[in-house]
Amino acid sequence: MPLDVILLVLFGALLHATWNAIVKAGSDKSLDAALISAGGAVSALPFLAFLPLPQSAAWPFIGASAILQFAYFQLVAAAYRAGDIGLVYPLMRGCAPLLIAATSGVVLREDLSGAALAGIMTISAGVLTLALEARRGSGRAVVLSIANAFVIASYTYVDGIGARLSGNAVSYTLWMSLLPPILLFAWAASRRGSLTVVRHVRRNWWRGLIGGAGSIASYGLALWAMTKAPVATVAALRETAIVFALVISVAVFKEKAGIWRYLAGVVIAAGVLVLKLA
């Protein structure tokens, strides 16, 4: 994998960890997740006029992605309510690249080298190691996290293929971001009432805008990278976001870091090195 692709995916991983921290810090995780999604759509709007429309073959993938992204944000909020981030985040982000690596040969006909597969496995092992440090969790949190790993793997495939068919990965990313917040806010309003939603948006719109811009930029970089390298490799490299999440948890949230947290960081870094050498 070229060094410039690696560096841009790593930057995207940093942005991903940042918007997850915004959701985790919020008082209403479901509405904050919807705000993040809406912030991504608002950030995308000014650029649409300057980019070509995705090719017609990509539009079914944009629609499918919107449904999967809706499910993803719902499961993110539910999992964070059910368990500690030290358990939930590693399970969600660590299982997804393993699922993709195990199935990409069948789905995408992509053959991974032994070194690339070793790098993917190493990164995933490092991410899953963090679950050993979790202090709080439940069976429900585990089920929700693993279910979301399947959703993540599914939309990674959908968007990886869609970005390639679109002719322009950036355009695909921006158009893909428009529908999920409509679904999320419509669902929230039907369940909790429009007044509750409007009040939350008025108080926290800036959180959604900042987090949404980071979210759409992070995913856009990943989709661009998927047009330059195998989807499974990019998906695994993107999970280095957990390293940045660890730094944020200690520096911002003042959480205590145990030996497993630092060991996982070393293992993930080793996996990135293996991918670079693959």
How would the blueprint of this fold be written?
Layout: H1 3-25, H2 29-48, H3 59-82, H4 85-107, H5 114-129, H6 139-166, H7 169-176, H8 179-192, H9 194-226, H10 231-238, H11 241-251, H12 259-277
Keywords:
278 residues, mainly alpha
Quickly describe the structure.
It comes from Rhizobium croatiense. With 278 residues, the protein is an all-alpha fold.
Fold and architecture overview:
InterPro entries: EamA_dom, EmrE-like, Small_drug/metabolite_transptr. The chain crosses the membrane at residues 6-23, 30-51, 57-80, 87-108, 114-134, 141-158, 170-189, 209-226, 232-252, 259-277. This is DMT family transporter. Residues 141-275 form the EamA domain. It is found in: Cell membrane. It is a single chain. α2 (29-48) runs antiparallel to α8, α4 (85-107) crosses α6 (139-166) and α5 packs parallel to α10. With 278 residues, the protein is an all-alpha fold. Helices cover 82% and strands 0% of the residues. It has helices spanning 3-25, 29-48, 59-82, 85-107, 114-129, 139-166, 169-176, 179-192, 194-226, 231-238, 241-251, 259-277.
